Amino acid sequence: MTLLARLTADPGADAGSWIAEHLAELRESVATNGAVLVRGLALPDRAAAVAAVRAVIGEGMAEREGFAPRDCHAPGVYSSSHWPADQPQCMHHELSYASSAPGLLAFACVTPPATGGVTGLADAAAVLRDLPVELVERFERHGWQLTRSYNPLVGTAWQDAFGTADRAEVERYCAENGLTADWHPDGALTTAQTRPAVRTHPGTGERVWFNQIAFLNEWTMEPAVREFLVAEFGPEGLPFNTFTGDGSPLDKDTVDLINDVYEKHTVREPWQRGNLMVVDNLRVAHSREPYQGDREILVGLGEPVRF
C-alpha cells in the first residue's frame, strides 16, 4: 500500500462527468491504498465542489458531536472546521469518539491557501505497529475517554453539536450512544464517553489506531491557550480533554510520543485548486497544518460505520 495514490484528470475536466466515469476506479484505489488524490478537475466554485463531493460519498451522513463549528452546505457536506489558521489540527480520524463514524471522506479544494494548510495523512495500521507495546496494551485494556465541556464562550455550542435545542433529545442521544450528560445551573453541558482506542477494519481485518487521544488532549493545545482556558474554566472545564479509559490523566510525554509516531508516518501533498481527495477514514488519519491566506476545503462524510 502506498497510502496516497494519485490520479490525473484531463485539465479542466468536468468533475461530475469524470467522477461518474471513474467512480469504480476511485473506490478501488481507496480500497487498495487508503486514499487517492485526483488533480486536474474543474471545480470553479463551491457549488461544483459540493456536487463533486456528493457524487463520491452518495447520501452522506450528518455530523453529530462535532468538536468545532463548521458550515453545512448539503447533506453530509461541510466546510472545514472553523479552527484558528495559525494552530494545527493534529492527526485524528473523523468522529472516532462517536458511536457512528464515516467510513469514507471526500475533500474538495475550492480555494488553496497561500502557504501551508496541507491535509496530512497517516497510515493508522503503521502507527499502531510503531507505538510502544505497553502503551497500546494500556489503551486496549481500558480504552480512551473523552470529556467535553460545552459553554457559550469556547468551542461548539451543545445545540450545534447535537443538532437540537431540546435537552431531552440530547439526553436521549447520550443514553443511546454511551455518553454521560451533566447539566450545570448556567445551562452549560459536560459529557464523557469511553471508546476503544484500537479498531478492526471491517473490510481489511487490519487492526488500526483509531481515536483522537492526542489531538483532543490538553497537552496538544498551544501552551498559552491551555493556560488561558485552565485559568478561565479550571482544569475540569476545558472544552475537551482525553484520558485513559479508567480516567487516568495523560502526561505530556505520552501525548508527544503519539504525535511523534504520527509525524513519522505523515504523507503531505499541497492543495491545488480543483483537487479531490478521497480517504478511508478508518485506515487513514488526517490533520490540517497551519496556513496563511484564504483556504476553502469542503469535506464530505459518507458510508457511516456503526460501532
From TrEMBL:
A GO MF label: dioxygenase activity
What region holds the TauD/TfdA-like domain? 13-299
Entries under InterPro entries matching the protein: AlphaKG_dependent_hydroxylases, TauD-like_sf, TauD/TfdA-like
The GO annotation for biological process reads:
antibiotic biosynthetic process
Q: Which residues form the signal peptide?
A: none
In terms of Gene3D superfamilies, this protein maps to:
Clavaminate synthase-like (3.60.130.10)
Keywords (alphabetical) are:
Antibiotic biosynthesis, Dioxygenase, Iron, Oxidoreductase
Q: Which residues form a coiled coil?
A: none
Q: What highest taxon heads this organism's lineage?
A: Bacteria
Q: Which cofactor does it need?
A: Fe(2+)
Q: What is this protein called?
A: TauD/TfdA family dioxygenase
